[in-house]
Amino acid sequence: MAEGYRVAILGATGAVGTELMALLEERQFPLTELRLLASPRSAGKTLPFKGQSLTVQPLGDRAFDDIDIVLASAGASVSREWAAKATAAGAVVIDNSSAFRMDPKTPLVVPEVNPQAAAHHQGVIANPNCTTILMAVALWPLHQIQPIQRIVVATYQSASGAGAQAMEEMKQQAQAILDGTEPKTEAFPYPLAFNLFPHNSPLNDNGYCQEEMKMVNETRKIFGEADLRVTATCIRVPVLRAHSEAVNLEFAAPFSPDQARAALVAAPGVKLLEDWEANYFPMPQDASGQDDVLVGRIRSDLSHPNGLELWLCGDQIRKGAALNAVQIAELLVQKQWVKPMATLA
């Protein structure tokens, strides 16, 4: 067997799980084994990988034996239950849920922003929330030139953020409405097709929903700025895939749009997309299936001398979830912050 890493995907049959498989193949991650794990109801299914059919295995006490890296995308409750078992078996867990993001001992990593944080893992590395990742990639290059003092963001979040079932539900709702029948709701509390509503995560006592507070707290942790002023309004919109965000930034001194464009053009993971004559700026259809965060409509804030406005779109399933996790795994391999068990002993 060639030297490489044994990787398990926890939640392999979900929208992010299948994207993880595609990215591991597309990016030629150094694998010697890929183990697909899911709930008992999904066990036995087969999924294609590198011309083969891999069988999904059920979670169990021996599921992580001889595994080097676990890419977990099965929800917070599953991660809380199984992450310790995976790390006890010797694996490093890259977790896509909210379970460990704000744990002080767990690095919260966006490789374009704070790759060094991954070196300090104690068995678990957290993948940030999708909207936080997309915003962080776009804002970090600007923050390096002149520290951001305040972020005001409004998100326009697609059905993909709630998984494959939600995407299919929105399709069915659209057809039902066009047919003149009542749309059914299961994944969301209200019909999303031809509609929009504030994010359906639970509301906190401060009036912000959990999704909005994720953006506040996670951005502070990733940037290493505990007092960074951030406010967010998160909205579900009838888009299948890719999230959009309108971002207003406040600096201590003027920050010109041209200076921002120059920084973003040179930044990893960002693509500038602006056609002012055609009034064409990033759209979800442009970002879907793309690795880069698309940024455009950069302009000075007329209401504030030190304000800057920008618009971004990014694929929630790729950079907002699966790609960021795979990039963290690549970072661990490149920096040798994880070593394959086959080479130990």
UniProtKB/TrEMBL annotation:
For this protein, what reaction is catalysed? L-aspartate 4-semialdehyde + phosphate + NADP(+) = 4-phospho-L-aspartate + NADPH + H(+)
Which EC number applies?
Answer: 1.2.1.11
Q: Where is the active site?
A: 130, 243
The pathway it acts in is:
Amino-acid biosynthesis; L-methionine biosynthesis via de novo pathway; L-homoserine from L-aspartate: step 2/3; Amino-acid biosynthesis; L-lysine biosynthesis via DAP pathway; (S)-tetrahydrodipicolinate from L-aspartate: step 2/4; Amino-acid biosynthesis; L-threonine biosynthesis; L-threonine from L-aspartate: step 2/5
* Positions of the Semialdehyde dehydrogenase NAD-binding domain: 6-121
- A GO BP term, please? threonine biosynthetic process
Question: Where along the chain is substrate bound?
Answer: 157, 236
> Per its UniProt entry, what is the enzyme's top EC class, as one word?
oxidoreductase
Q: Name one GO molecular function term.
A: NAD binding
**Short name of any one Pfam family annotated for the protein:** Semialdhyde_dhC
Residues given in the record as NADP(+) binding sites: 13-16, 41-42, 160-161, 316
User: What are the UniProt keywords, alphabetically?
Assistant: Amino-acid biosynthesis, Diaminopimelate biosynthesis, Lysine biosynthesis, Methionine biosynthesis, NADP, Oxidoreductase, Threonine biosynthesis
For this protein, the record's SUPFAM superfamilies field holds: Glyceraldehyde-3-phosphate dehydrogenase-like, C-terminal domain (SSF55347), NAD(P)-binding Rossmann-fold domains (SSF51735)
Q: Residues that bind phosphate, according to the entry?
A: 101
Q: Does Membrane show up as a keyword for this record?
A: no
Can you state the subunit structure given in the record? Homodimer.
Q: Which family does it belong to?
A: Belongs to the aspartate-semialdehyde dehydrogenase family.
Chain's role? Catalyzes the NADPH-dependent formation of L-aspartate-semialdehyde (L-ASA) by the reductive dephosphorylation of L-aspartyl-4-phosphate.
Query: What is the name attached to this protein's record?
Result: Aspartate-semialdehyde dehydrogenase
